[in-house]
Amino acid sequence: MEKMKHTENEEQKFTVRKLEISDKGKGFIELLQQLSVCDSVSNDEFECRFQELSSLGEDHVICVIEDEVSGKIVATGSVFIEKKFLRNCGKVGHIEDVVVDSSIRGKQLGKKIINFLTDHARSIGCYKVILDCSLDNKVFYEKCGFKQKEVQMFTRVSLDAMLGLLLSDQEVTGSNPKNNLSTRWVRLHTSTLKSLLHLTNFLLVFVVSE
């Protein structure tokens, strides 16, 4: 999908596009911190994850909006594609991590993110797009064409199981745990994982279909 320029007025111009590796220096991580727990990410960690997601091609797309005046990323969201056996081996788009900078809300940037992501999902043949949201955002997503359908269920994953899975990965790959990125991540973010496991959120499941 091509970059799209949108002019709000003579002073503000916004570009809607896919995430680029240089966006870390434009406040992308700081923007995500307005949405949820997001510790500092080193340049190496960012590049590693960016390359990993980029290798998925059109099956995982992160959209951003850049303020051309300030050069900052002011909105973002992502969609990943689930490939199913149902519906004649159909595809479903899952929208995640939608956030607009608190200093610039009220300019329809969130809607532009949602439109970009749903358009992408439809363009590659998804028969529906779904997302989770809080009660506070229910009206917003309804205005974007989504409707409530059922409720989300979840189960907690124990911290020991999460750490064990990550560390066992080192044994499988035979890599040096002292130098492996996953092991460094475990050391740095154990406290964050503990915090996340104590969070409870009631989320609604929303869906939009063709």
Automatic annotation (TrEMBL):
Magnesium is among the record's keywords: no
Organism: Lupinus albus
GO CC annotation terms, alphabetical: endoplasmic reticulum membrane
Top EC class for this record: transferase
Topology class, membrane: Peripheral membrane protein
Protein name: Glucosamine 6-phosphate N-acetyltransferase
Gene Ontology biological process terms, A to Z: N-acetylglucosamine metabolic process; UDP-N-acetylglucosamine biosynthetic process
Record-stated family: Belongs to the acetyltransferase family. GNA1 subfamily.
CDD domains in alphabetical order: NAT_SF
EC annotation from Swiss-Prot or TrEMBL: 2.3.1.4
Reaction equation(s) it catalyzes: D-glucosamine 6-phosphate + acetyl-CoA = N-acetyl-D-glucosamine 6-phosphate + CoA + H(+)
Classification via PANTHER family: GLUCOSAMINE 6-PHOSPHATE N-ACETYLTRANSFERASE
Pfam family of the protein (one): Acetyltransf_1
Molecular functions per Gene Ontology: glucosamine 6-phosphate N-acetyltransferase activity
Subunit structure: Homodimer.
PROSITE patterns in UniProt: GNAT
N-acetyltransferase domain residues: 14-168
Pathway: Nucleotide-sugar biosynthesis; UDP-N-acetyl-alpha-D-glucosamine biosynthesis; N-acetyl-alpha-D-glucosamine 1-phosphate from alpha-D-glucosamine 6-phosphate (route I): step 1/2
Keywords associated with the record: Acyltransferase, Endoplasmic reticulum, Membrane, Transferase
Locations listed in the record: Endoplasmic reticulum membrane
Keyword Endoplasmic reticulum: yes
